[in-house]
Amino acid sequence: MSKFRISEVAALVGVSGDTVRRWVDSGRLAASRDSQGHRLVGGTELAAFMRAGADEDPARHRSSARNRFHGLVTDVVRDGVMARVEMQAGPHRLVSLMTREAADELGLEVGSVATALVKSTNVIVESQTSREGPHA
Fold it and tell me: Keyword set for this entry (predicted)?
């Protein structure tokens, strides 16, 4: 059976290593220790945890897009109708074309944090901050 270190679990689940350690410490996710004292999570246990988490986590976005890239907006070019938004998500550079109105409503600007959702040939951008109107 596969065994995963805390950092590997964090990368697979999409959370920080500290979050995984809290899950283990609280008993939410089972782990054992290797001979060096590192925590290891069994592949079967991790798969069950991830399946259950997809249904239980109310904070999880509901979307058919499965490829999410959380990153930093590195460039925004707006013209009269369209906007080109460039993001860096780890080693991945993503570029999305959208309406200027959408970029404005999402509050996208250089240095803001956003998530790009990739579905087929489309990139959908989400933002944790948004503006209420065009003059906010």
Answer: Molybdenum
Length of the chain (residues)? 136
The packing angle between helices 43-56 and 6-13, to 10°, is 40
Phi and psi (nearest 5°) for 51? Answer: -60, -45
**Single pTM value for the model:** 0.48
- Please write the tens of the pLDDT for every residue from 22-31: 999 999 999 9
CA distance 9 to 48: 13
Domains of the chain: 3-56 (1.10.1660.10), 67-127 (2.40.50.100)
